[in-house]
Amino acid sequence: MYMVEVRWDNWLFTNWCVFVNLQDLVIMGESKCTGKRWEDMETDVLVKIFKELNLVELSPVSQVCRLWRVACSDPLIWGTLDFGLLKSNFIQTRASPYIWVDDRSDKRLSKILRVAMAISRGNVNCMIFHYNLYMKDEHLNYISQRSPHLKRLVMPAWNRISKGEICLAIQRWEELESLTMPTIGHPPYIMEELAKRCKNFKELKVMGSFDLLFASAVTTYLPKLKVLSLRCSKVTKGALLCVLNSMEHLEVLNISHCLLFEIATNGRRQVIHELDDSILERASQLREFHHCQSRECLACQRMMLDEGILRWYRYEDWFWRRDEVSSLDLKDYGRLFGAQCEMLTSVD
Asked: For residues 221 and 191, is the Cβ–Cβ distance under 8 A?
């Protein structure tokens, strides 16, 4: 049994009493003021009120009447759908996809997505998922069909998503401009799909490793990319030079806290703690170049400790959301799915 249904019923009873009391106050005061009944309010007024509610609160409110449903679906409410607090219950495995997710987590995610997509009615522009939220093909297919105007996707975990499904989603998101993604085994396919379908694509953030193959795919298929962030990733010097030498339209590059290394003549990997002139000279032509390879920096120390593959779960839960590039920084968790929603949508 889903506890979310019981808890929503309790919440609905409590908060509906509040709405009824508000309406009674308006009616009682009509003889003394020019206040309007709830059903007579302008949509923009309702939107301002409903904008303060979260996903759990919006669900019953959207079912009151047609006017309230229209207001609950307004694009001003659904500009960003931030699931940054929602995580899967999982364990790591040795076999592909190297992750096992509890069935209750999948059902919980499906239920939440159904509610969000039903109320938003295709008006979501930005979706943010936690780095430990492992959705599968059916989840991605569901949201890609129902969010045709998506411009930004932050989805750092692709373990359970097939190549075909991510390509299908990209084909539907022709307005996509920004993508935060993990390291993948064969990056050219996604870069090629972005180049073919998303003509306004301009921002890419990679969380993981960035080697010469990845860099070549980016420079080949996305030569007009404006912003590239590799923050807290393991990056080869060859990959970095490939980007700096080939991407004439690149304006912003972030390699802050990266584990930067090159292959020595003896075949060993050698960590680079200071950028040489060949890198700095090319980077000087960018509008913004963010870098930090300092032994005194806490984030850089963490990268060294984790040998370039950052174990995000060890650190502050907001740490993965930060970026020195302002347009990529996720800041605080969104109101639509906050801590209250995380508690009320648990599945027992």
From this structure: yes
Angle of helix 188-197 versus helix 163-172 axis, rounded to 10:
20
Q: Which ranges in the chain belong to alpha helices (H)? A: 3-28, 43-50, 55-61, 66-72, 103-120, 137-146, 163-172, 188-197, 212-221, 237-246, 277-283, 298-305, 339-344
Distance between CA atoms of residues 326 and 322, nearest Å = 9
At 242, phi and psi to the nearest 5?
Answer: -60, -45
Backbone angles phi, psi at 321, to 5 degrees: -85, -15
Render pLDDT for 227-263 as a digit per residue (tens, 0 to 9): 999 999 999 999 999 999 999 999 999 999 999 999 8
Q: What contacts 226, CB < 8 A, 6 or more positions away?
A: 202, 203, 249, 250, 251, 252
Sign of CA dihedral 97, 103, 106, 110: positive
Place of tokens 């009493």: 17
Are the CB atoms for 293 and 300 separated by under 8 Å?
Answer: yes
pTM of the model: 0.86
CA end-to-end span of the chain: 7
Q: What is the 3-state secondary structure (H, E, C) of 234-270?
A: EEEHHHHHHHHHHCCCCCEEEEECCEEEEECCCCCEE
Sign, CA dihedral 158-161-164-167, equals negative
What's the mean pLDDT when you consider all of the chain? 87
Give the tokens for residue 50: 């409903």
105 contacts 90 by C-beta, under 8 angstroms:
yes
State the chain's maximal CA–CA distance in angstroms: 89
